[in-house]
């Protein structure tokens, strides 16, 4: 490729590239930041700025940037067999190996993998296959999905419908029929004076109430992120998921855990359903499955669901050209090998996670921070106008953006949702990088407070 300067790239970008989740007109005026290189927990932009990526790209670069082994695994597989599909009674070796590896890693009897290209497609897949599961058992009317307001399950039509983001529903006439939502656990917003256990029961009861309102014979499944990421890292009460599981079992409603963010170590266990000790029937995966090095998603089905789908389901009328792509599978296997052999998840649980948690929670001492949430390797700071009140700034989102921009000025990438600052660093972050992260976050908070006057 010929050299091309940054200003020209920005001009071409503004002219030809529509960015996801951006106000594209505002972005064109501001000029896109162009990232050029990554190593460990750092990325560099075209202006030469070094940035500590406390968000792991988009919650996904679990093993950090720049691991040559993944490139080499992709290159080997591309040279040997760049593509073959899993349609027509065929498949490839890495795809089979990855199915078996995922069956071994995921808890309980989630033993059967269906591959997609993304988390959104994984959630689309469950909408169709779970409805099919009930239909072939002569319960076609058991087809309603219950999700949660403010949940995020992706951007495809079904993914965005299963999610509960109002801004997304407004564009394109969503949700599609047959999907309803309940309120999520968000103690800072609506926990009132309830203690954790009472609040957990209270929030789980919203599911039972909704199932009874609809009639259990009409409810196919409940879907949720074990920790709600995109809306602001809402960490549920400890008993919430066990209560949810109890209710799902009582009414024979399938339980779907969207572990697209939480899978592969983010909460200090391989999967958040282990952290919260519950048994999903279906689990969706993406992101950390390849540490974001190449696109891949998967749905794990338990024995009960898979037995029906393959026993009575007939031909599965569902699949993607790239379902189980051998190059993506080879990269995923190499990523998992690194996570396992370097004991990355265990180090997070026993060492770096507790250290990061201590530093992150200490940020609650800043006058702007109303709550510091943290679990495993993921967290949020809720920025507030006055500390004890659990109230929000007017024009929600403005202060978060301000803080995010100040963090960037200081060489730190944090994400802002509303006025919450979100944390999800590569799992390989070191203690000195945690210190740098905490210091730079405090500085960004100070600069934000100063700008607010
Ligand atoms: N589910 C969750 C919980 C997510 O956070 C995301 C993306 O952030 C998705 C699904 C969608 O995944 P993808 O962007 O790979 O389609």
Automatic annotation (TrEMBL):
PROSITE patterns in the record, alphabetically? Answer: AA_TRANSFER_CLASS_3 (PS00600)
Q: Which SUPFAM superfamilies match?
A: PLP-dependent transferases
Task: Could you list this entry's UniProt keywords, alphabetically sorted.
Answer: Aminotransferase, Pyridoxal phosphate, Transferase
According to the lineage, what is the superkingdom?
Answer: Bacteria
Q: Name one Pfam family in it.
A: Aminotran_3
**GO molecular function terms noted in the UniProt entry:** transaminase activity
Q: Which cofactor does it need?
A: pyridoxal 5'-phosphate
User: Which Gene3D superfamilies does the record associate with it?
Assistant: Aspartate Aminotransferase, domain 1, Type I PLP-dependent aspartate aminotransferase-like (Major domain)
Entry-linked InterPro entries = Aminotrans_3, Aminotrans_3_PPA_site, PyrdxlP-dep_Trfase, PyrdxlP-dep_Trfase_major, PyrdxlP-dep_Trfase_small
Q: Which CDD domains match?
A: OAT_like (cd00610)
- Span-the-membrane segments of this chain are none
Asked whether the keyword Transcription is assigned, the reply is no
Q: What family does this chain come from, according to its entry?
A: Belongs to the class-III pyridoxal-phosphate-dependent aminotransferase family.
NCBIfam families, sorted: PRK06105.1 (NF004767), PRK07480.1 (NF005682)
- List the protein's name: Aspartate aminotransferase family protein
Organism, as annotated:
Arenimonas soli
Q: Which gene encodes it?
A: bioA
């Amino acid at each position: 490729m010929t050299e091309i300067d940054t200003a020209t790239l920005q001009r071409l970008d503004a002219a030809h590239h529509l960015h996801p989740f951006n106000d594209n007109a505002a972005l064109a005026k501001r000029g896109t930041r162009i990232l050029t290189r990554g190593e460990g927990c750092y990325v560099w932009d075209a202006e030469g700025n070094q940035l500590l990526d406390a968000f792991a790209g988009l919650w996904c670069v679990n093993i950090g940037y720049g691991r040559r082994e993944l490139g080499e695994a992709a290159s080997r597989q591309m040279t040997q067999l760049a593509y073959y599909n899993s349609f027509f009674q065929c498949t490839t070796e890495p795809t089979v190996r990855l199915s078996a590896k995922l069956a071994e890693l995921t808890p309980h009897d989630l033993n059967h993998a269906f591959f997609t290209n993304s988390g959104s497609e994984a959630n689309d897949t469950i909408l169709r296959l779970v409805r099919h599961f009930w239909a072939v058992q002569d319960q076609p009317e058991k087809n309603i999905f219950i999700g949660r307001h403010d949940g995020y399950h992706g951007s495809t039509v079904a993914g965005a419908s299963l999610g509960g983001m109002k801004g997304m529903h407004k564009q394109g006439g969503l949700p599609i029929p047959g999907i309803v939502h309940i309120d999520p656990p968000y103690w800072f917003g609506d926990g009132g004076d309830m203690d954790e256990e009472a609040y957990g029961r209270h929030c789980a009861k919203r599911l039972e109430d909704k199932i009874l309102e609809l009639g259990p014979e009409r409810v196919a499944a409940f879907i949720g992120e074990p920790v709600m990421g995109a809306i602001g890292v809402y960490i549920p009460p400890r008993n919430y998921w066990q209560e949810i599981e109890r209710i799902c079992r009582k009414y024979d409603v399938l339980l779907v855990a969207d572990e697209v963010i939480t899978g592969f170590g983010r909460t200090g266990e391989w999967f958040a359903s282990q952290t919260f000790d519950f048994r999903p029937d279906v689990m969706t995966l993406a992101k950390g499955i390849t540490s974001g090095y190449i696109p891949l998603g998967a749905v794990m089905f338990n024995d009960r669901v898979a037995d029906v789908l393959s026993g009575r389901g007939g031909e599965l009328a569902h699949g993607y050209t790239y379902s189980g792509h051998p190059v993506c599978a080879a990269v995923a296997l190499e990523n998992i090998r690194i996570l396992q052999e370097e004991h990355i998840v265990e180090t997070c649980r026993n060492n770096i996670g507790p250290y990061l948690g201590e530093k992150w929670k200490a940020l609650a001492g800043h006058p702007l921070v109303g709550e510091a949430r943290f679990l495993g390797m993921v967290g949020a700071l809720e920025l507030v106008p006055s500390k004890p009140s659990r109230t929000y700034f007017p024009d929600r989102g403005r202060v978060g953006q301000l803080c995010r921009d100040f963090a960037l000025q200081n060489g730190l990438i944090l994400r802002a949702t509303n006025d919450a600052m979100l944390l999800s660093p590569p799992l390989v972050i070191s203690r000195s990088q945690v210190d740098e992260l905490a210091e730079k976050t405090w500085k960004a908070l100070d600069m934000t407070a100063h700008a607010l006057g």
